[in-house]
Design a protein that fits this description.
single chain; mainly alpha; Arc Repressor Mutant, subunit A; Tetracycline Repressor, domain 2; 2 domains; 10 helices; Transcriptional regulator, TetR family; transcription cis-regulatory region binding; Homeodomain-like_sf; DNA-binding; DNA-binding transcription factor activity
């Protein structure tokens, strides 16, 4: 193994370990020493590869969000002949898998970041959240029309994404209130169906009721 391969392996282990430790303890309580210990790396490795704890956190967050975005494209499962209803379900399902489907640590990190944003948050919004906004608004316009009032589109889009975030941010409560609620693939599919049905009702109210928020 070359030195470059060894360094790349160390970097990847640090990112994996950082995700676990930051998810378990939060940014402030997480320590570089514990991250390096889990990664099997020297404590100086974080400074060498990332320049410090803050940059490690930002790099880790961007890395895993990029991986999840590539793994779960928001339009996966749809095509030119897909109906608006099919596109809505696909968007919701892929969003749920993107923020919760790969591992619990990733879901915790996303939830933590939305509640207590880090210095990396603005970059995260620009790189990963704005494309989500564009995708969901495009789906909503398939129902309301391309010339629908911006406020109506925003209200529907926020309602759709907000339901997904509700399941993410309130996981510990929901699992205790509803013992049959699961966050495995089958459970996420059921959430997607529920959010889609509820959202269709809301979109219909905007579509046929008229008016703006």
């Amino acid at each position: 193994m070359t030195q470059q391969q060894q360094e790349q392996g160390t970097r990847e282990r640090l990112l994996e370990a950082a995700a676990e430790v930051f998810a378990e303890h939060g940014y402030e309580a997480a320590t570089v020493r514990e991250i390096c210990s889990r990664a099997g790396a020297n404590v100086a490795a974080v400074n060498y590869h990332f320049g410090g704890k803050e940059m490690l956190y930002a790099s880790m967050l961007k890395h895993f969000m990029a991986v999840c975005a590539a793994r779960h494209p928001l339009d996966a499962g749809t095509g030119p002949e897909s109906t608006p209803e099919e596109r809505l379900y696909a968007f919701v399902r892929n969003l749920l898998y993107r923020i919760m489907g790969d591992d619990e640590a990733h879901g915790k990190l996303v939830a933590q970041e939305t509640i207590d944003p880090s210095p990396a948050f603005d970059d995260i919004v620009h790189e990963f959240m704005l494309p989500v906004r564009a995708a969901v608004e495009d789906v909503v316009k398939a129902f309301l029309g391309q010339d629908a009032p911006e406020a109506s589109v925003r209200a529907c889009a926020a309602g759709i994404v907000g339901q997904a975030m509700f399941y993410l941010q309130n996981r510990s409560i929901l699992e205790r209130l509803y013992h049959d609620l699961t966050y495995d693939n089958e459970g996420l599919d059921r959430m997607a169906e529920s959010i889609t049905r509820f959202s269709l009702g809301g979109i219909a109210a905007w579509r046929f009721g008229g008016g703006e928020a």
